[in-house]
């Protein structure tokens, strides 16, 4: 059975990432990109689906582990009766091919080590052909090849379609293992020195982290979240994956298992805010450029998500040979939600580009033409029902959050033209649309008897996304309708002191069986809402509780199960870490929004 989600840490090279467990096993790795097929897929099956474990003989879990300073270099320390050993895992920023490097270092005494490499391409389905070439163990199947070597040389042997190594390290000794992916038809790439690569990788991350401008309370948590967001960045394009994994469940044993290795447009505004506020203009610029490339084309074809390089086709299918994380099937690859109509994304795109201009990012010449085209399309579509923020697989509805974000789109378009009157655009029409949307939401999306905005027109169900109403400027924080909504969401969507997105048990809400945990991003939204409505102490208390949910290396998944006391959903989750950064900025008065 796979370890608890919170038992994992992430390493990465800004193009893909691996998950390393407390037992010393890399149980998830997709090569060469985040969304490539996994060669280690034990996370969603068992050891036969691929893993790479290095640990002391007869040891199950490490004593301690931590990232080395403000980097993504992971140190895992094992204490045994005969001595202490440290395994350092990292992925250097790549030149041509991805490398996973594991350095075993003796700290005291003498420790017997055991390594097991199980390579299975195509999500644990294809057993490669193994051979020896020039001091390497080489695994090849179809388009993939993986080369493994050690420095100094450690004898390796094959058995039962696995590769093993047994060796001993004494105090002061180091052994470096280098695993490199390459296309199978290419020649072996140049060797790299694992110890020199470690020094370079540490310097790269230290240089990047030193740019962080945030110096307030919770700096360690904020910087770790920014490092995690950076780790989920696909450097060649600037896109940011929502998570490094697919199909980690929102309910253990349930079917709410989705592929999150893609880029969601709705993360744009929050990501820009987090990165720029943290001092990372280069990443924000790259993300804005990715956004403009991804959404270019017919506005009617705008998608809610794209591939990490801007790909539009993300066909969803199931992988039957993987049993799923702790039996949570099906395992899904791709995401059919890419084809949904979600009107809120127009608001997110307009808001993110508005924020980019407000923060001083240089204007792109074609950006305004694109924004005009998006607004022309939205003017004719905003009155239609859609699948909404939460990508429901039930009937389309008039979701309140979607309408509010349509208002945001019109508002940001109007304000852009007011600030830059030489721009061309239908400003009078957008003003009229803004007023019409506002009036309709306040009439049809508000339950006066319960003093709360609802999930959709005519519904009694609530939606945590309505907590964003004051954040985006739709209504001021002291408006009684805002205060009532915060109280209602807090009372009706509470789960162990945190917040659910909505009530999945309600008939017909999302078209799926089962339930889910508390949604961490929504819980951070409640922090922001409590602070803005004049309850800073309650906001700070909730923020502290949320920080306590992070695992031992500061990482968060998508959700939290307060009954089992464990994390749920894909991991690490960008949306959760964006929420953490933005709430810290809110509580310290350093967050600016498009409102």
TrEMBL record:
Q: According to its UniProt record, which protein family does this protein belong to?
A: Belongs to the glycosyl hydrolase 15 family.
Enzyme class, UniProt record, top EC level: hydrolase
Protein name per its UniProtKB record: Trehalase
Query: Which cofactor(s) does the record list?
Result: phosphate
Q: Does the keyword Hydrolase apply?
A: yes
Q: What is its EC number?
A: 3.2.1.28
**Superkingdom of the organism of origin:** Bacteria
Q: Which reaction does it catalyse?
A: alpha,alpha-trehalose + H2O = alpha-D-glucose + beta-D-glucose
The record's annotation in Pfam families points to: Glyco_hydro_15, TREH_N
Keyword Nucleotide-binding found:
no
- Describe the location of the GH15-like domain by residue ranges: 219-584
Q: Which of UniProt's keywords are assigned here?
A: Carbohydrate metabolism, Glycosidase, Hydrolase
Start and end of every Trehalase-like N-terminal domain? 2-149
Q: In which pathway does it act?
A: Glycan degradation; trehalose degradation; D-glucose from alpha,alpha-trehalose: step 1/1
Q: Name one GO biological process term.
A: trehalose catabolic process
Citing just one GO molecular function, the answer is: alpha,alpha-trehalase activity
């Amino acid at each position: 059975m796979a370890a608890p989600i919170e038992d994992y840490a992430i390493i990465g090279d800004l193009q893909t990432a691996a998950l390393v467990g407390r037992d010393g096993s890399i149980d998830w790795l997709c090569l060469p990109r985040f969304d490539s097929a996994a060669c280690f897929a034990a996370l969603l099956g068992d050891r036969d689906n691929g893993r790479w474990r290095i640990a002391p003989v007869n040891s199950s879990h490490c004593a301690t582990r931590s990232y080395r300073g403000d980097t993504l270099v992971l140190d895992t320390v094992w204490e045994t009766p005969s001595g202490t050993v440290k395994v350092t895992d990292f992925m250097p920023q790549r030149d041509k091919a991805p490398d996973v490097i594991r350095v075993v270092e003796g700290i005291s005494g003498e420790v017997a080590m055991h390594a097991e490499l199980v390579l299975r391409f195509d999500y644990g389905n294809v057993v490669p052909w193994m051979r020896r070439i020039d001091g390497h163990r080489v695994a090849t199947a179809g388009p993939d090849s993986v080369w493994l070597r050690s420095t100094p040389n450690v004898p390796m042997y094959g058995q039962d379609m696995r590769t093993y190594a047994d060796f001993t390290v004494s105090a002061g000794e180091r052994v470096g293992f280098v695993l490199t992916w390459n296309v199978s038809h290419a020649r072996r790439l140049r060797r790299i020195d694992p110890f020199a690569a470690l020094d370079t990788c540490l310097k790269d991350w230290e240089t990047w982290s030193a740019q962080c401008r945030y110096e307030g309370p919770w700096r360690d948590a904020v910087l770790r979240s920014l490092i995690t967001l950076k780790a989920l960045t696909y450097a060649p394009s600037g896109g940011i994956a929502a998570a490094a994994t697919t199909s980690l469940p929102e309910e253990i044993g349930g079917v709410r298992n989705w592929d999150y290795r893609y880029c969601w447009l709705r993360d744009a505004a929050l990501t820009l805010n987090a990165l720029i506020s943290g001092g990372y203009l280069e990443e924000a610029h790259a993300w804005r450029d990715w956004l403009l490339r991804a959404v270019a084309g017919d506005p009617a074809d705008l998608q809610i998500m794209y591939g990490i390089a801007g790909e539009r086709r993300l066909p969803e299918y199931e992988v039957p040979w993987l049993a799923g994380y702790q039996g949570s099937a099906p395992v899904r690859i791709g995401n059919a939600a890419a084809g949904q109509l979600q009107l809120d994304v127009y608001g997110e795109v307009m808001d993110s580009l508005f924020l980019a201009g407000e923060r001083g990012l240089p204007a792109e010449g074609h950006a305004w033409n694109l924004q005009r085209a998006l607004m022309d399309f939205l003017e004719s579509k905003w009155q239609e029902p859609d699948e909404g923020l939460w990508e429901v697989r039930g009937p389309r509805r008039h979701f309140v959050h979607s309408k509010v974000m349509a208002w945001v789109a019109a508002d940001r378009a109007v304000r852009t033209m007011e600030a830059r009157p030489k721009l061309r655009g239908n400003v009078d029409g957008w003003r009229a649309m803004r007023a019409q949307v506002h009036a309709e939401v306040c009439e049809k999306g508000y339950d006066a008897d319960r003093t709360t905005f609802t999930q959709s027109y005519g519904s009694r169900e609530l939606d945590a996304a309505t907590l964003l109403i004051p954040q985006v400027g739709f209504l001021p924080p002291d408006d009684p309708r805002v205060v009532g909504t915060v109280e209602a969401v807090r009372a009706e969507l509470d789960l162990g002191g945190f917040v659910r997105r909505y009530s999945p048990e309600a008939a017909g809400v999302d078209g799926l069986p089962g339930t889910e945990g508390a949604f961490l991003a929504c819980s951070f939204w409640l922090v922001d809402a409590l602070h803005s409505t004049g309850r800073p102490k309650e906001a700070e208390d909730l923020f502290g509780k949320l920080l306590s949910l992070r695992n031992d290396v500061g990482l968060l998944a998508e959700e939290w199960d307060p009954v089992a006391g464990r994390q749920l959903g894909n991991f690490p989750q960008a949306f959760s870490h964006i929420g953490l950064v933005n709430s810290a900025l809110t509580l310290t008065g350093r967050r600016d929004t498009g409102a």
